[in-house]
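ok so for the tutorial part 2 we go from a plain amino acid sequence to predicted structure tokens. step 1 is just haveing the sequence, like this:
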Amino acid sequence: MTLLSDADLLGRLIAFDTTSRNSNLPLADFLCDYLDRPGIRISRVPSAEGDKTNLVVWVGPEPTGNRRGLVLSGHMDVVPAEEDGWTSDPFTLTDGGDRWVARGACDMKGFLALATNLAAEAVNAGTERWCDPLALIFTYDEEVGTLGAKRLAESFPEAAALPRSAVIGEPTSLRVARTHKGHFKMRVTLHGVSAHSGYPHLGANAIEPAGRVIEALAALRRELEAETPHNRELFPEVPFVPLNVGTVHGGSAINVVPDRCVVELGVRPLPGLGSAELIERVDRAVRTAAAPFAPISVNLELLSDSPPLLLDEAAPIYRHLCALVGQTAGSSVSFATDAGWLQHLGLDCAIFGPGSIEVAHKPNEHLPKPELTAARELLAHTIHHFCQTGN
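step 2 — the prediction. this is what the tokens look like for a chain of 391 residues:
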């Protein structure tokens, strides 16, 4: 396939509606066709259902097991674009003068376009004199719980061959971040007994104990905010474990005693905190609150678990990127990324990419054109440093 400009390739990627509820296979097929060139090897790591896939793309020398080289990683899915306020088609790349506007422009198809083109350009120019390989890791379902990265961490057969140094291209406005909180999501389902509201004694209202459960979760939230966990200094804006009750659904009609109520919540552990202890605290708070409402029963589900990240300041990828952009102090981000799982593959993950997280997930999401250009130069320099010079 003919090599496209970064903007044209970005436009092609944007046109695939990879909202997480959809399959990403059409986009993955396009990327495989685009990168189908001598010197590139592509592995697919599909989801358990087979309707989605991760891509792992190898460029340059065969890995030797020394874990030298570089990984560039990003996710293929995007969040829905159903908010009011869009001034253009979210899935058509729009020229906004000094910016590119579309769903996924900054989060994070701009980075995908750069990584893809840099890999294609490398093999077109020849990688015979490269010292170490470049690997691209493109994942599915990052936006709904880093599910694709988790699948990779659990099942990728060539994990030990991946280069150790990795750039996770989330939008950081080209600042280097080495740490983020995790995020696990839970669903609490209260089961009652339906009945006509004129005969409430024949039923068991599932919404009433849900109110007590929400109160208990609010109390746990306040407890967590008052605690002083390890690594809190890395997150000066929110130096504690946040707990958020995000959705509540229950009942079908005003004249029906509701037999079901669902409460969904998210908790963001700091690096060094495992999810298990926090999940147990949520479980205990919920069950204690619901206990007086027998015969109401409670079911708790862990929907997803994205681990926190903490990269050592001595890691070569971190030191390289900081030197490249003139950054002297480490920074953190307050959102979870695929890096939480990819670190379990032995990767040193630095978060670094064009675009601002402040415009992601919003109407008229956009990517500044100067940042796309700057990111290309910085990533090309990083590929040269880790893959071509033997550093």
